[in-house]
Amino acid sequence: MEKPRENRESSIEGGIDSEQIINTWIDNASRIWDSVEKKMKNTSENGEETIFKSRDAAKNAYKAWEPAMKTWNEFASKMNKKEMIENIMENNRAGTENFHKILKSGLEGFSFFQKRWMESAKNIHGIFKEHRIEGMGGSEIFDLFTDIYQKEIGKFLSIPPLGLSREYQAKLQQMIDKSNIFHVKLMEFLYFLYIPFEKSFKVVQDSLASMADEGALPEDSKEYYQMWLKQLENHYMSLFKSNEYRTALGKVVDAMSDFMAARQQIIQDSMKAFGIPVENDLDELYKDIYSLKKRIRVLEREAEKNS
Amino acid sequence: MLNINEPIHKTLNNIAENTEMMWNFADDAADVLLGDLNTEIAETPYDIVYQQDRVKVKYYRSEAPVKMKTPLLIVYALINRETMLDLQPGRSVVKSFLEKGHDLYMIDWGYPTRKDRYMSIDDHVNGYMDDVVNFILKREGIQKINLMGICMGGTFCVMYSALHPEKVKNLVTTVAPTNFDTDQGLLHSWMKSVDVDRLMDTLGNMPGDLMNFGFLLLNPARLMIDKYQSFVENMNSKDFVENFVRMEKWIFDSPDVPGETFREFIKECYQQNKLITNQLELGGRLVDLRNLTMPLLNIYGKFDHLVPPGACEKLTSAVGSTDVEDVCIDTGHIGIYVSSKCQREFTPKISAWLSERDGETVNNDTKPVKKKPVKKAPAMDN
């Protein structure tokens, strides 16, 4: 192997001499590979035995390594040249410039998305204003959330999936979407069921306050309980007859049906993967059995009539 | 100087007495709950004399002699179980009828599974019910039976009697909804807001547990709070606990309702009110209540929150029969069967009414019956 040049002039005046560092590294690496080559050639400088016991094995091993060593020698000799080192430096500088360019375009892209998010936030604010919620609001807060979800958040779940598994992705997206809607409707329904508790407690508190003023507070604790229970019952009756409750009931039942149907799709797909018959398969069978039984029944009756 | 010791002593004394009372109560309650409790229901012996799919017919064995010529077939609702008619000794409608000398059959609708989801009202009325009636007619060697329907079972009996009047001698309906155009009951207004097609397409059958929850919601204050508060107060009474547990066993023993039947019942009855307006079709045949020409006894509860009086009282004026009677009892939906006071009024009334008509041999095919003018039911906005 060609020995690298020694005593080279430094390529950079002052500061870190990168050329000398590289040369030193190449020199040391070459010495290591030289000794490896000699060991593998089954001869040594001093005629000592090499690490390989078998001459053939050593030769074969050397043959496998020879192309790599030749390439390394070629590389090392090229690296010693000043032009090569200058090229490497130039590439480093170019790399840094490119990195800055990438960073800049990345930041510009981020600011583009940030702008979109700000627009979305502005739309959400608009929806808030539209609903005119004051303070914590009542059940309107659920309509508000549904509106925000459907207009600004849920649309991400409507992005069409791609690829071989697109159908399954679409079903999963739908299930997540329906689950979100169902939970909001359920919260709204439970909120309605909670209202009579709140109102009855308030009414009882007011009644007790006026009874206390009159000095007519009941002694028996059961009377307090009965007072509260009656109020609770009355408030529930008023609630159940209201349009708001009926609407909430209809919505939660619909949302529950949609969510369960979407979830069932996922479960059925998973079961099919295990070769287990699913509900739809069984329903088709049941339908066939039902139709057959009905036909048999009609035929039996006709046969009875004729006999 | 104000003596504050006395009220303090009094309060402490009260607390001590109450604590002692509380411990005694807890002790008694523990004895009751951990002791031997008889909470069996439906103990009157019977035989299964007929079965088709999940549907069975019970024939009750009577120790008393049978006095009535015409057997009585009781058709319960698809919601909850017919065991309510035989809930506990001393409050058993079944036993009362047997003691009065009735030959008693009862349909047990069983527990529908997913394979029953396509069973429609027509399958129940013109299918199962007709087969059961034919079986009993053949078994007894008679032409007609007495039919008694409860709640949704009563609605089915009305449909059956209008389609097969030649097989029904007398009809008794109890708390049976026939007119659904009323705002008196919450169910009537709630069902108009439900998309039953979507629900049934998803669920298949209507789950019993979901229905139970819906019924509890009709009065959560009483049914979910006060009821159990009352139980806690009376936990030390063995009789109370046994009766309470029997009721709990029955009320939460709720089979699923076949999907198609539930769909049709909600759409065509609750939402479109087709039955009372003679627009309902079963198996391609029109259910015309004017064809219901046999004697009719219609019993309902004044304080029934499930099937209010407004849902029952129009039946007698819509049918073709002239021998009709409405009886309104001061009770709720199930009080009519389980309240001991109502038991004393209810079964004797039915028994006496049937007995009066047991010896008649009215044949609707040959003898013309004078019909009351039919009042047109109000139009229903769908």
Can you describe what's shown?
The complex is a heterodimer of chains A (307) and B (382). Helices cover 79% and strands 0% of the residues of chain A. Chain A has 307 residues and is an all-alpha fold. Among the domains of chain A are: 18-80, no CATH class; 168-276; 278-307. Chain A is elongated. With 382 residues, chain B is an alpha/beta fold. Chain B has a single domain (46-356), classed as Rossmann fold (3-Layer(aba) Sandwich), CATH 3.40.50.1820. Chain B has an 8-stranded mixed beta sheet with strand order 1-2-4-3-5-6-9-10, with helices on both faces. The interface between A and B is medium-sized, with 30 and 30 residues.
Quaternary structure classification: heterodimer
CATH class of chain B: Alpha Beta
Intertermini distance of chain B: 77 Å
**For the terminal residues of chain A, how far apart are their CA atoms?**
113 Å
Tell me the number of strands of chain A.
0
Uncertain parts of chain A: 1-13
What can be said about the biggest beta sheet of chain B?
8 strands, mixed
Q: Write down the overall geometry of chain A.
A: elongated
